[in-house]
Specification:
single chain, alpha/beta, Rossmann fold, 2 domains, 6-stranded mixed β-sheet, 4-stranded parallel β-sheet, about 45% helix, globular
Length: about 350
């Protein structure tokens, strides 16, 4: 049984939380692209989460993750990702702002110049993070390097514990039940904006990586009984347990707030047709989508995450999978700092 927006706000407000962002983020219609594509296209600007200039979807998650770390009395916060991870950068500033030391283990999908850190790596250093770059071994995949980085992080946490220093371990992408709660809360925010503006969305698109944002959105939809179809466009190859893990995150987040609804794997619509040629590898399709949005609306989406999700949405509209005249919402999850990263990530955008 679904609940009201007011009831959902009350349930979520009981959780440990540190205020990090400026909410609600803007939601508005993209008039020029709506006319070009033949749908009513709206955008939710979660690249504007604040309070740091470089926001994004992880800020919502980190309100609950940093809240949990502080509640447990942690002094250090560990997390993981690629060297240009938006999540790692946002964890660095969120931790620093709350008096916690950020420690990052980052897999070098695109090896950085150790004498010339760029974009998110540069920001990580400015925010005072302790950075450990994990180089990929010969023939090793990103996923395999990530597993090594997790092991290295756990060993580091154990060493600190022997010194009496307590750490809080945040998974890649902030993808645990506390992090997913950030996007349950976001879905409540969207529902309130829809109610205030008398809007209804048939379809919603967003980029998904570690799955925490997707889990929170689907959980929030179930909590409020919304009927929007959520399309989660992957930024990387995912395995056969991807939906199962997302279901566990979604139900874990709902359990945290004492909510009755439960979600199943069937409620996740995952589109893995647009991440190629690989994670942090630019695609021609995404490049064209980025240019289209930039030149029609003056908005930037990044080539790693939201650019590929935007390309997936355009593909569905142009192929007729999304009927003409549909009301479509695109969730912009941030990532603009990647435009200042290595050429291998950016691709040919000019």
């Amino acid at each position: 049984m679904s609940i009201t927006i007011k009831e959902a706000v009350g349930m979520i407000s009981k959780m440990p939380r540190k205020k990090l962002g400026f909410f609600p983020t803007p939601l508005y219609r993209l008039d020029a692209l709506s006319e070009e594509l033949g749908v009513n296209l709206w955008i939710k600007r979660d690249d504007f989460t604040g309070s740091n200039l470089f926001g994004g979807n992880k800020t919502r998650k980190l309100e609950f993750l940093i809240g949990k770390a502080a509640d447990e009395g942690a002094e250090c916060v560990f997390t993981y990702g690629a060297t240009q991870s938006n999540h790692a950068m946002q964890t660095a500033w969120a931790a620093a702002r709350n008096g916690l030391k950020p420690i990052l283990y980052l897999a070098a999908v695109v090896p950085p110049d150790p004498e010339d850190f760029k974009a998110n790596l540069l920001l990580d250093g400015i925010f005072g993070a302790e950075i450990h770059v994990v180089d990929l071994e010969e023939g090793e995949s990103f996923a395999e390097a990530e597993k090594r980085s997790f092991k290295m992080g756990k060993e580091h946490i154990a060493r600190l514990a022997e010194e009496g220093i307590k750490s809080y371990d945040i998974p890649m992408g902030g993808a645990n039940k506390y992090g997913s709660l950030g996007y349950v809360n976001a879905m409540v925010e969207i529902a309130e904006q829809m109610e205030n503006e008398n809007l209804h969305f048939d379809q919603m698109y967003h980029s998904t990586g570690s799955g925490g944002t997707m889990a929170g959105l689907v959980a929030g939809k179930a909590l409020l009984g919304m009927d929007v179809q959520i399309h989660s466009v992957t930024a990387m190859e995912v395995d056969e347990r991807y939906k199962a893990r997302a279901k566990e995150l979604a139900n874990g987040a709902l359990e945290l707030i004492g909510a009755a609804p439960r979600v199943t794997e069937d409620e996740f619509f995952v589109d893995s047709n647009h991440y190629g040629p690989g994670y942090e590898c630019p695609s021609e399709e995404a490049t064209e989508a980025i240019k289209l949005l930039a030149r029609k609306e003056g908005i930037l989406v990044d080539p790693v995450y939201s650019g590929k999700a935007f390309a997936g949405m355009i593909s569905d509209v142009r192929s007729g999978n999304i009927p003409a005249g549909s009301d479509v919402l695109f969730l912009h999850t941030g990532g603009a700092t990647v435009f200042f990263a290595e050429k291998e990530i950016i691709g040919d955008l000019c």
